[in-house]
Amino acid sequence: MGATAVRFISHLEPPLLLPLNQQEQVLPLVQEALWNALRHAQASQVEITLAGKEGKLEIRVSDDGIGFDPDVDGGDDDSHFGLSIMRARASQIGGQLEIASELDKGSVIKLSWAANEPEVKEVGQFDDRALSPSMPKEYAADSYE
User: What domains, with CATH codes, occur in the chain?
Assistant: First the structure.
């Protein structure tokens, strides 16, 4: 098996600081999806995409691997056990998990959930407050001697 190229694309303005409860669910879910793509899918390319709009966040892990049937129970070999854990993690943050896969055409795992604090901004939006931060005088550039 050859190397797998993994690409990350963010359509959000950094930094994205998730509340702790979301970090505890989203990050392991994405790790599991990425691990599945690398371990089971025989993918040559994996793409992780992060986007947000109107108070919602979405992260998608897609691959060009061999695919699978998400409706088939893994049986005794626990091959779909990770999917049930991902569904449970999505549920913990009130999110929706969508799984799409087709044999020989790859898979897409998409998690969407409501963004809590802090505010999520799309790339291209600009906060005018960043132009004029209120800096105490003792930290102003001309106060150093």
Answer: 5-143 (3.30.565.10)
**Using CA atoms, how far apart are residues 40 and 54, in angstroms rounded to an integer?**
35
On whether the pTM is more than 0.85, the answer is: no
Q: What is the 3-state secondary structure (H, E, C) of the chain?
A: CCCCEEEEEECECCCCCCCHHHHHHHHHHHHHHHHHHHHCCCCCEEEEEEEEECCEEEEEEEECCCCCCCCCCCHHHCCCHHHHHHHHHHHHCCCEEEEEEECCCEEEEEEEEECCCCCCCEECECCHHHHCCCCCHHHCHHHCC
pLDDT in tens, 81-131: 789 999 999 999 999 999 999 999 999 999 999 987 544 445 544 344 433
